[in-house]
Hints:
The protein is α+β, with helices and mostly antiparallel strands. It folds into two domains: 3-45 and 300-436, no CATH class; 55-292, no CATH class. Helix content is 52%, strand content 12%. The chain is built from 13 helices and eleven strands. Strands 1, 2, 3, 4, 5, 6, 7, 8, 9, 10 and 11 form an eleven-stranded mixed sheet that branches.
Amino acid sequence: MNDFTIIRRSLTARSLSTxxxxxxxxxxxxxxxxxxxMRDSGRKAFERGSGNMHLLISAESDPLTSILNSVFYANPPxxxxxxxxxxxxxxxxxxxxxxxxxxxxxxxGLPVIASTAEIFSKFKPDAEQAWKLRDGRxxxxxxxxxxxxxxxxxxxxxxGDEVALTHGAPKRGEADKxxxxxxxxxxxxxxxxxxxxxxxxxxxxxxxxxxxxxxxxHAHDRREAEAHAAHGGDEHDHHDHGITTTADNLTDxxxxxxxxxxxxxxxxxxxxxxxxxxxxxxxRADPTxxxxxxxxxINKLFQIVGSVDQILLAMAGVxxxxxxxxxxxxxxxxxxxxxxxxxxxxxxxxxxxxxxxxVLAESMVLGLIGSxxxxxxxxxxxxxVTAAMKERLGxxxxxxxxxxxxxxxxxxxxxxxxxxxxxPAIVAYRTSVAKNLRPLG
Length: 441
């Protein structure tokens, strides 16, 4: 009988113990690999959203909130920037682009981003890749709408369809069944003229319109309210006043924005500029606005997440150590029932050294099987996590791991299993043949 057969029969004879022991190893290896795979790929996914902008200007309470709301659409921004302020800021520095962005409307719960054509021609959602169209074209005038890849898939809209936008954007986790139905800007229909290719960023969830169209629908609401008040504030529907609103009816008060995507002028082919620090410092001196450098804020976010990440990695290490203890206990406790089996093997010619190696090999096999299951669990787990991130945030995370790092984790689990098997192997090595071959009873 060869060693492999002996080990296999030993494991199957204790099938329940074998299953739970290998599962403890699998959980430890799987958790460790998932954390390592998600750590760097998550950062890259966030960097894709901010693209090639140098600065984000808003009226938010802090820079990180500004980035999360105006780039990743976590919640609608609360405070706008007046148009006169935008024009003043535009003169602060030589900008490569200075793109106004207005958020506040939605369609089926998805954010609607009002901007200028420069958001497609100059801003890149990924610093290495510009926008690409899957169908149609970019908007060219008011009341045309371009769909992000995920927005198109989720809504089922196609070229030529017309939609009415909803005033306001639902906040995550704040749905209220008793709240009144949101106001729909059904006086204006936006025609779908383009569908974007996936960018792997939160922008895939958005619908894009010309900022003038966004101003017009809100100016129309203002003019309806004024007409309603002029008629004594009676209960008649606001839509009964026969008001038509165009770009000519806009006032500076209507031209509000919620953020500015800005990039300081740089040399061709360069992403850095000596003008960025002084421009940032000058803008920060203005108490009425908030200025953020996306790269810095993302780094701060991942410093916070990194602390949690280290705790989780430590927890995975503890789980892996506990799996080693499980192997030790499983094999050690089995020694009492296997002493007679070991004595028989010795009589049949097995040396003490071979017995020692058999028990040690059995321990390593438990580690190997658990590691193999753990690798499978890790890849399934990563798929589930990345699918959830894509579904909820529109972030495409290409999770991967350096094969050498993965091999180190698996090898570490097997070595740990071997260490855990040393004590049971020593016990087996010292098993007395004469004592354990005495007649039973």
